[in-house]
Each structure stands twice: as C-alpha cells, then as structure tokens.
C-alpha cells in the first residue's frame, strides 16, 4: 500500500519538477530582454542608441539579413546566369553628392542583382579602394536610358521599379539611406579611403594627439566637426547652422565623453574659428576635400551641420552623429524635395 502511495507521490514529484522546469524556463526566457534592458539602462549611451536604431529600422534590418544570405561572392555569377542589366551612376557636383550617387546606385544594383558600371577616372575610384570592377571605357552607359528621381532627398520607390534585365543611368541626387541600407556592410567595404589619403590623415591625427600629449590616444575621444557655410549662406533653400547649434552639439559630447579633442573642417574657416566654442580642445584642418573628409571619418564621433559632405563624414566615422535639425528653409523648393526621415540616417541626433 505505502509502495503505491510512494509511486503515486513520486509521479506528482516528477510532474511537479517538469512543471517547475517549464515555468521557470518560460520565465527565464521572458526575463532575458528585461535583463538586457536593465543592464543597458545603466551602461553607456551608445547601447541605448543602438537599440533605438534597431527599433526604427526593424523592417530594414530584416531585409539586410535576407540580402546578406545571398552573399556578395555569388552575385556576379548570378548576374551572368540571369543576364541582368547594368546601372551607371551619373556623377554631378562635388564629393558628398558623388558618394550619394555612387552609394544609392550601388544599393539599387545590389537589390536587383545588377552590375554597376564605373569609370577608372571617376572621382569615387580615385579616392576609394573600390572592390568592384572599374572600366577604362564606359561609353556603353551613353546608350542606356536615363531614369530620373522624383525628389532629391526623398526615397523614390518608383525609381527602382524597373525590369532588371534592362540597363539604365540613374540620375540626380539620390540622397536617401533607404536606397542602400540593406547593403551597408558591403558599401562600407567599397568606401575605404586609398592608402595615400589614409597615411596623410594618420600624420595629421598623430600631430594633433602630440600637441595634447598629456592625453593618451587610447583614452582620447576625437569628435570631427564639419561646418558648411560659404556657398550656401545666401541659398534660398538651406538654413545654415547657427552658433547656438554648435554649442548644443559640443555640449552633447562634453556631457558624455572625457578628454575630447574637436577637429573642425569648414568651407568658411574664419566663421568656424570665430564661433566654435573656445572652452574646449579644438583643432582646425584645411586640406584637400577628400583628406578633410577622411580625417573627420577617422574620428570617433561627428558633429555635422548641413550638406552631403558632412553627411558622409558622419556616416563613415560610424559613431554618434549630431545634425542641424532644420536644414530646409520654410517654403523653399528644398523643403518639398526633402523628407527628413528618408534623408537623416536612423539613430542620428537632431539638435
Ligand atoms: C538575386 O539572385 C538571387 C540568387 O539567384 C535570388 O535569390 C534573388 O531573388 C535575386 N533577387 C532579385 C531582386 O532578383
Ligand atoms: C514611375 O516611373 C515611370 C518610368 O520612369 C513613369 O512613367 C511613371 O509616371 C512613374 N510613376 C509615378 C507614380 O511617378
Ligand atoms: C593638457 O594640458 C593642457 C595644458 O598643459 C591643460 O590645459 C589641459 O587641461 C590638459 N588636459 C588634460 C586632459 O589633462
Ligand atoms: C584612461 O582614463 C582613465 C580615467 O579617466 C584612467 O583611469 C586610465 O588610467 C586612463 N588610461 C590610459 C591608458 O591613459
Ligand atoms: C576612438 O577611435 C579610435 C580609432 O578608431 C580607437 O582606437 C579609440 O579607442 C576610440 N576612442 C574611444 C575613447 O573610444
Ligand atoms: C516621409 O516619408 C515617410 C516614409 O518614409 C512618410 O511616412 C512620411 O509621411 C514622409 N514625411 C513627409 C513630411 O512627407
């Protein structure tokens, strides 16, 4: 009799143990995200920033995973197998614009398994160590039909709505991260500055660190600053960043990091020197555009004002980026062409 009771009870014990295991298992799983969040709540600002970026771009993150599964090494084979067409970027204006034109055409080509055709002499190729094939002769592009974007800084879904067996030239500014977001890893690989530029930058940075030799480079936070004024001060379209913006942005970083050196590039140096806050360690640089951009890109974080030169300096640096929140003048043509969600990279901080 007692034997049966024992078995009876031990059955309950086994069921009980299983029950406890299951419930605690479920609870354990449930607490993981909470643990993560409470940990990140105490830890650095960077982590919170990454979480926010993920939330805002959830659908793009999903795309990224799908696309990356295809893998870059097989895509050329696929092009040949499927006889897809090619895309030619149409380069207009200066460096920042050119990088948008390249990056977006690159992204669209990748998303449609197409080839991108670049000329050896394109500025993009002279500055960056591209990992794609470049050609001596790109006259074939002249026979391709042109597709124009609708608005310059708004993601145009219709621009990419074409048959990938055909070939096109994609024209105008294409200033939205949404064109290339699923391929940012591959894009970053393409946008590696050439060795001459990198050496030049390294020398400049070492000089700056030496000047502040009481700060070890290991512990120093470099914040690149791009102040765009000059040509756009009188623009009907652009607002230029104010001295107050610079103060807000500098304070943003001062509140979060120690031993900061700000490195400033500008197309209006006298203004930059006058209005950059002076109670900080600040250095001004003035080199060729690509060296300035590469120097800012090698900093830990970035303060940008307006314009595509700053945009790419911040993107390439890959840290925190603050931007001037209201770049388009009210009632201007630019205001109609620019969608801030499409234009500003997710996670960047508008001040
Ligand atoms: C690109 O090629 C891959 C592999 O053949 C295929 O799975 C994918 O659907 C293609 N993508 C497009 C947009 O055609
Ligand atoms: C989409 O692009 C095609 C080809 O460029 C054009 O004919 C059509 O009008 C565009 N549609 C919209 C809604 O803009
Ligand atoms: C580095 O030295 C300068 C001048 O000697 C001093 O003003 C500054 O506070 C020092 N910086 C740090 C981070 O120690
Ligand atoms: C970095 O800074 C921290 C505190 O700010 C200090 O304890 C540490 O010794 C520094 N490390 C180096 C390599 O200078
Ligand atoms: C800044 O960036 C450099 C180079 O990427 C890195 O070695 C350094 O640790 C970074 N500094 C801080 C404080 O994160
Ligand atoms: C900007 O584009 C997004 C979609 O990316 C859209 O939801 C939003 O309404 C647009 N904003 C404006 C001001 O047109």
CATH fold assignment of the largest domain: Rossmann fold
Shape descriptor: globular
CATH architecture of the largest domain: 3-Layer(aba) Sandwich
Largest sheet: 6 strands, parallel
Over all CA atoms, what is the radius of gyration? 26 Å
Helix content: 40-55%
Oligomer category = single chain
Q: Mean pLDDT, nearest integer?
A: 83
Number of helical stretches of at least 4 residues: 14
Q: CATH top level of the largest domain?
A: Alpha Beta
Strand content: 5-15%
Order of helices and strands: HHHHEHEEHEEEHHEHEHEHEHEHHE
Query: Low-confidence stretches at least 5 residues in length (pLDDT < 50)?
Result: 20-74
Can you put this structure into words, describing what you see?
The chain has 14 helices and twelve strands. Helix 5 (95-111) packs across helix 12, helix 8 packs across helix 11 (289-297) and helix 11 packs parallel to helix 12 (308-317). The protein folds into three domains: 2-76, no CATH class; 84-190, no CATH class; 196-350, 3-Layer(aba) Sandwich (Rossmann fold). It is of the alpha/beta class. Helix content is 48%, strand content 13%. The protein binds 2-acetamido-2-deoxy-beta-D-glucopyranose (NAG) (6 copies).
Task: Give the helices and strands, then pairings.
Blueprint lengths: L1 H41 L2 H12 L1 H13 L1 H11 L3 E4 L5 H17 L3 E2 L1 E2 L3 H5 L6 E2 L9 E4 L19 E4 L12 H7 L4 H17 L9 E7 L15 H12 L5 E7 L2 H7 L5 E4 L4 H9 L3 E4 L3 H10 L3 E3 L9 H5 L2 H4 L5 E2 L1
Parallel strand pairs: 1-2, 1-6, 3-4, 5-6, 7-8, 7-10, 8-9, 10-11, 11-12
Bound molecules: 2-acetamido-2-deoxy-beta-D-glucopyranose (NAG) (6 copies).
One 2-acetamido-2-deoxy-beta-D-glucopyranose binds next to loops.
């Amino acid at each position: 009799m007692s034997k049966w009771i024992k078995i009876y009870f031990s059955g309950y014990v086994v069921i009980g143990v299983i029950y406890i295991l299951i419930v605690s298992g479920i609870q354990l799983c449930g607490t993981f995200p909470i643990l993560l969040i409470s940990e990140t709540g105490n830890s650095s600002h960077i982590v919170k920033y990454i979480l926010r970026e993920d939330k805002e771009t959830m659908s793009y993150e999903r795309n990224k995973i799908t696309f990356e599964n295809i893998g870059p090494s097989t895509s050329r084979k696929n092009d040949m197998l499927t006889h897809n067409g090619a895309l030619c970027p149409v380069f207009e204006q200066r460096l920042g614009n050119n990088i948008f034109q390249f990056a977006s055409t690159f992204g669209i080509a990748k998303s449609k398994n197409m080839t991108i055709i670049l000329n050896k002499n394109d500025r993009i190729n002279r500055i960056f160590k591209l990992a794609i094939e470049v050609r001596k002769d790109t006259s074939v592009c002249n026979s391709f039909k042109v597709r124009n974007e609708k608005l310059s800084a708004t993601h145009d879904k219709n621009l990419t709505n074409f048959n990938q067996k055909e070939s096109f030239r994609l024209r105008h500014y294409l200033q939205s991260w949404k064109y290339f977001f699923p391929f940012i890893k591959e894009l970053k690989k393409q946008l590696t500055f050439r060795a001459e530029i990198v050496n030049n930058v390294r020398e400049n940075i070492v000089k700056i660190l030496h000047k502040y030799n009481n700060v070890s480079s290991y512990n120093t936070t470099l914040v690149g600053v791009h102040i765009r004024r000059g040509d756009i001060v009188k623009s009907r379209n652009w607002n230029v960043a104010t001295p107050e913006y610079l103060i807000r942005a500098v304070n943003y970083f001062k509140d979060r990091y120690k031993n900061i050196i700000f490195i400033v590039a500008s197309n209006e140096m006298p203004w930059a020197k006058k209005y950059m806050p002076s109670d900080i360690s600040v250095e001004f640089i003035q080199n060729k555009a690509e060296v300035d951009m590469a120097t800012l890109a090698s900093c830990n974080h970035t303060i940008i004002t307006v314009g595509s030169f700053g945009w790419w300096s911040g993107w390439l640096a890959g840290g925190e980026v603050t931007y001037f929140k209201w770049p388009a003048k009210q009632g201007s043509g630019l205001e109609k062409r620019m969608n801030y969600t499409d234009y500003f990279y997710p996670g960047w901080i508008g001040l």
